[in-house]
Amino acid sequence: MAIADVAEYAHLTDSDLDALAAALDDIRRDVEASRGARDRTYIRRTINFQRALEVASRLTIATTKGRRGWWLGTLGLAAAKSIENMEIAHNVGHGQWDWMNDPEIHSTTWEWDMAGLSSQWRYSHNYRHHVNTNVVGVDDDLGYGVLRVTRDQEWNPSYLFAPLRSVLLALGFEWGIALHDLYSEHERADNDVPKSEHNRALLRKIGRQMGKDYALFPALSLKRWRRTLGANVTANVLRNIWAYVVICCGHFADGAEKFEPETLENETKAEWYLRQMLGSANFDAGPVMAFMSGNLCYQIEHHLFPDLPSNRYAEIATRVRALCTTYDLPYTTGHLIKQYLMTVRTVCTLALPDRFTENGFRPPRLRVEQLQQVRAVS
Question: Where would I find the Fatty acid desaturase domain in this sequence (predicted)?
Fold first, then answer.
């Protein structure tokens, strides 16, 4: 069930909460104070590498013969698109590089290589999701309105199609995100812009995106346009699937807790920190997989410090994990495949009415719950 009192659930006293928040504030100050040339070099090299990889991949698709060359170019293009979306655009959109005062690498100017508008995504993601992480009925990213990922979401017959929806969402993730962000803009309370203007803005972006991938580059390939068109479609689908898997593991895997809306009432900064730690999940990754996932293998650290540079998350994770040990808090992580299969099991199980599954589906007991039981007995 969703958590109503975060501090009580985590068995932390007021002094524990204050000390935890102070330690996390220290991490933020340390990273902010040490940002500099190393970080600038990292993001600029990442952008240059991504652009070079995209150019090389498109040339490989257009100039080579046979399936081997096509697959090599297509996989390279999918990788380039994943890097652009996750390690660059997602993190730039969070303002992680705004401190550089570079007009190109800035949250307000970067437009990503996806169907949706970055400006619409920033409101939906940075505010509605990150501020209200995993709060049932408030966080729009909790199941994206089409998946049931907790029993606290009331079951309705449409959820019977959730397994199929999850497959379709994975294949067309960029389109799902585009519509998701558009609906968030429509519901924005302080938005004076007519819905029709948001719709037109999104349609213009979709036109530019489809024109680039599905008209311009195939046309440049002349007689080989079918080869290029097929590669672009495949690369986009592969990028969509990868982004979907990574993001689902961050909040739908076992151990990523859900919360009642009352947790937001008079929530302190310390309680917000704690909710991010309990509501997020990592997956184990080496440097290459971390880079390809936009460093979202460190989802816990990302939710604690969404605007700190992603290349710092590995070092931040060491300190966050130590704090979890100190305060007997769970640090949810595991192999990527395991984490994702947990989300598949949850989506498929909760697609059925509760009366069919409530006795047969129990997520593994979390460390914090085990500690509560031990303390109660003692």
Answer: 70-333
Q: Which token pair is 344?
A: 């598949």
Cα separations in angstroms, 69 against 26, 61, 114, 378: 50, 6, 25, 65
Please state the rounded mean pLDDT for residues 134-142: 94
Ordered by start, the domain boundaries in the chain are 6-355
**Cβ density class 25-42: b for 16+ within 10 Å, e for less:** eebeeebeeebeeebbeb
| Planar angle of CA 11, 323, 281, nearest 5 degrees | 80
Is there a contact between 324 and 331 (Cβ–Cβ < 8 Å)?
yes
DSSP percent split of the chain into helix, strand, coil, nearest 5: 70, 0, 30
**Four-CA torsion 11, 338, 149, 237, nearest 10 degrees:** 140
Note the pTM of the prediction, 2 decimals.
0.91
In DSSP terms, which residues pair with 259 in a beta bridge?
Answer: 3, 135
- Compute the average pLDDT of residues 167-188: 93
User: Which tokens belong to 151?
Assistant: 């029993």
**Rounded to 5 degrees, what are φ and ψ at 207?**
-60, -45
Q: What is the largest CA-CA distance in the chain?
A: 77
Query: Does the pLDDT at position 378 exceed 70?
Result: no
pLDDT at 187: 85
Angle between helices 173-187 and 195-211 (to 10 degrees): 160
